[in-house]
Amino acid sequence: MMRVNQLLKKNVVSTTAFNELPPLHKDVVNDFYNQVDYDSNDVVKEVEATIDKVALNHNVQTDVIYNYIEKETGE
Question: What are the boundaries of each domain within the chain?
Fold first, then answer.
């Protein structure tokens, strides 16, 4: 039998900006962090491609991730 903590996904980050997100957006951001290739030679293209892919998979606008990144970085 599975326990409740085994059913819950662990969050990749625990910041104020992340904790303010609704549950669906937290899933989107978690997937983004898990899927981005941190060793990519072209980081900007990798981040943008991963944002597009994750947003499409979750059926949300890319603004969800871009807005989160802006809040996280203070830009």
Answer: 22-73
The span from the CA of 28 to the CA of 23, in Å, is 9
Nearest CA to 34 among 1, 10, 62, 3? 10
Quick one: tokens of 50? 């991963």
Q: Which two tokens stand for residue 65?
A: 């991730």
List the structure tokens of 31.
């997937």
Q: What is the pTM of this model?
A: 0.80
Tens of pLDDT along 17-66? 999 999 999 999 999 999 998 888 999 999 999 999 999 999 999 999 99
Q: State residue 26 phi and psi, 5-degree precision.
A: -60, -40
Report DSSP state, residue 16: H
